[in-house]
Amino acid sequence: MTRQSYHEGLEQLNEEVLRMGSLVVEAVDFATQAFLKGDRALANSVIAGDDDINELSLWIEGKCLALQAQQQPVAIDLRLLHTALLVSLHLERIGDLAVNIAKIAKRMDRSEVAEPYMEILRKMSAQALEVLRQGIKAYADRDAGLADSLAEIDQPIDDMFKDILSRLLSHEKGESGEAPSTEWATHIALASRYIERMADQVVDMGGRVSFLVTGQLDGKYFDRAAPDINKRFGE
Amino acid sequence: MSTESLLDGWKPTAPGDVTPREESKMEGSPVRIEGVRAAAAPGTASVRNKVELKDVSFYYGDFKALDDITLDVPENQVTALIGPSGCGKSTVLRLINRMHEEIGHTRVEGQVLLDGRDIHDRDVDVVELRSRVGEIFQKPNPFPKSIYDNIAYGPRLMGVRKKDELDDIVERSLVQAALWKEVKNKLGNSAMDLSGGQQQRLCIARTLAVQPEVILMDEPCSALDPVATQQIEDTIEVLKEDYTIIIVTHNMQQAARISQFTGFMLVQETGEPGRLVEYGATSKIFTMPDREETENYITGRFG
């Protein structure tokens, strides 16, 4: 094989992105469980585990820089380095959001928990975890079709987030039952927002995977106009 | 609940925003950070230096060609020297196997150490030195003999006579130089009939036949096409497991690809001697060089 250490470096980079992916899946799984069950020990393990994710993110960034500086990557190799860097940044953000949820899990007063909200948050959590798993699978399998479908499976999460916000606001207006405390409402609003943001990060990650496979920067993933981006890239 | 603790979760934790605590934690972490932060600088404890230049200045007659070069070459690594034409890169190579002595009217100041011993000491045998420090030149220079005789030439000079012993050396050397498969059925053919890239790998095999410890390469790919260049680079990557390699190249991308350490040399003003402007881990030189001159050269802003 020619350029052996270079190709081994790319392979290693790819494997570390996947390893980071599985760490982040675990963080999201545990953080949402900790939040839903009020499990402080589990929340603490998520917070402690974030260091490993951050460390891996830095390693990936350094490796991408070194390979670009030294190996003049082109075509699929160049697209992989570009994608690996951005995917690792998305994953790192998702890990941070999991930490945020774990922190809420530690602080929230359980006596105030209202089941209708928790039921929605359970569904949101499960769906967000599914979006994340599919996003990482799309990267691992270089599956542009799956990457394309992420926005669709993310949609229910956006809807549930809006539902939670409108319920909280209507409570505040006194339209249905007793108004929740401001502190509790803030926890619920933030937790649902963090889950919604996580899934959004995965949808953007899908755009990176799509670029890796097709070489096209598609604006639909990033709320930007596609033609301009493609033109700039082509120049 | 205080506002501060509520907002704790909002604290921006952008990637790259590493706190000193995290930074110090990473030092001893099991994940090895390669690339920008990790490559050990030459001269650090983990790497043994095979060749060391200490305050070396060099003169061709009255002309001072090199000024005060200090350079540690780590063992079993590829060290590249880059810089514009005439900056003294090849002169540095010559000092390491005393090829400058073939020119005459030259003078060396400072020390050139091989395994800690000054190679310019009076009792160092230059023939033995050159068998320990082989050299590959810019243009392939096979002898006008058969492939076999090219490789066997050095061992025969050193007294190897037995046919099967010579056969072994020829095969081992050609395998190491990644040429064996292409020539094993025509060892009696003239070396001059090989392609340029094959001739250069033959010259590498000829050097390996006398089992050197250090291999000096003076622009070994400049006369070769991209495919042959690729083969030589692949060969170098394998050879560094067993040999210490110092390569001079005009092709700085090549230096970036194949070396672990890079030195940048420069003549500041015409007529001045060449100096070593910067030396360090290749990953650092090509991402964050310390010196502006290095940055300007490798980014194509001059030179």
Give a written overview of the molecule.
The complex is a heterodimer of chains A (235) and B (303). With 235 residues, chain A is mostly helical. Chain A has 7 helices and no strands. Chain A is elongated, with a radius of gyration of 20 Å. Chain B is an alpha/beta fold and 303 residues long. Chain B contains 12 helices and 10 strands. Mean pLDDT of chain B is 86; it is low at 1-45. Chains A and B meet through α1, α2, α3 and α6 of A and α2, α9 and α10 of B.
Write a compact overview of the structure shown:
Chain A is mostly helical and 235 residues long. Helices cover 84% and strands 0% of the residues of chain A. Chain A has helices spanning 4-37, 40-71, 75-107, 115-141, 144-172, 182-214, 226-234.
- Name the average pLDDT of chain A: 90
Arithmetic mean of pLDDT of chain B: 86
Return residue spans of chain B where pLDDT drops below 50 for at least 5 consecutive residues. Answer: 1-45
The percent of residues in helical segments of chain A reads: over 70%
Placed side by side, the strands forming the largest sheet of chain B appear as 6-7-8-3-9-10
Q: What is the overall shape of chain B?
A: globular
Strand-pairing-aware structural class of chain B: alpha/beta
| N→C terminal distance of chain B | 63 Å
Let me know the largest β-sheet of chain B.
6 strands, mixed
Task: Tally the helices of chain A.
Answer: 7
Number of strands of chain B: 10
Report the count of strand segments of chain A: 0
